[in-house]
């Protein structure tokens, strides 16, 4: 079913009439179905040799020669969004968030979805292990983004440059290496019981990646050899320091080694742990770092990390409209809004942090003092639920922003593989510029990228389902990854 073609006049009329989509009638959502689809999405982003059990059958093998120019195997991993480049920085963050989703909420997932989530994580970690397989060296990207973005072609047809970008010590890549350390440490916890040997491999390599990040400090995008390839797409805009603390925090969580605890304690101020505490995403880890580290403080184990807890709670207070410190922006329909593109990455990641902290509060029977009010775990979960329900269809457009969920969802997403005929239906090559006819078409995408959460509406709650408007219509792995954990919670607790 095609999404409705709303315009501003339609929306104004609907508001005047008091009709606000499915949310007006308190629509009950199938969170288990949404969770299943959110995980399935990652199969549509796969690069490499696809297994027989691949469920999205319109995808096929791609990028099978990745790494050959460096005489190394760099096949596998994920395309980050609607293009065909493998960017290491957001892929590592995606992996961390998928792993954190399982660490915090995996026991709430239906058993089959927990298995599927582990498969999704391993598709990434197998690749990340390859990126640090050589001493004092990290591969940070495969694919030239300029030539890739000049084409509109299926990943299976790629004839653009599959250039390999790497950073060798003493040149720094603290951000990518630090995030890779976090991803491998977090994922080691995911596989600890199901595959102990693999878990040990992940943890050993996490330590190696962290040592590379910490020994040669600096941002990877400051390196002239890779800057033109990673910027402006995934430049390190907010500094590398947060990734060092983030990597150390995950290694502390995975190992309980006091050396990493000491690192977080002693480097907090010098690495700016109290900077930009209201941000969380692929570039800025501060809010997530503070929430993660707060667990030990709330449990009464480590009081020396109290400043991290204070920062976490200061951030969470800003999200609650009833508090005196509230300053986050919401759309008229109630969606968390941050300036810039791909807004739902903020909504899903912030909602994830609310639910994680709510878990920590529940287990320790505590609440947050937000000055004029106390915010409880229940309150955090209620606010989180509003965001989830908005994304799934309780919004002014009456539109689910997850492809394939509900009766009305985006049909023209900014995604090459989804918008072009599959090679099963059209086995002939569709060359670089030949795909333009599909890009410019107003027809719905022929292949359903089930579970993809798009960038989402603007601050006015409007979404026009326009393939060319990539800031709104492009899905990304780092929008979906935290949403997996969020949906896992609500699949088990639909009415918190």
TrEMBL record:
Any signal peptide, and if so, which residues?
1-26
**Top EC class of this enzyme:** hydrolase
Which reaction equations make up its catalytic activity?
Answer: Endohydrolysis of (1->4)-beta-D-glucosidic linkages in cellulose, lichenin and cereal beta-D-glucans
Q: Which InterPro entries match?
A: 6-hairpin_glycosidase_sf (IPR008928), 6hp_glycosidase-like_sf (IPR012341), Glyco_hydro_9 (IPR001701), Glyco_hydro_9_Asp/Glu_AS (IPR033126), Glyco_hydro_9_His_AS (IPR018221)
Catalytic machinery residues: 414, 465, 474
**EC number(s) per entry:** 3.2.1.4
Assigned keywords, A-Z? Carbohydrate metabolism, Cellulose degradation, Glycosidase, Hydrolase, Polysaccharide degradation, Signal
Which top-rank group of organisms is this from? Eukaryota
Residues of the Glycoside hydrolase family domain: 31-487
Family as reported in the entry's similarity comment: Belongs to the glycosyl hydrolase 9 (cellulase E) family.
Q: What protein am I looking at?
A: Endoglucanase
Q: Which organism is it from?
A: Stylosanthes scabra
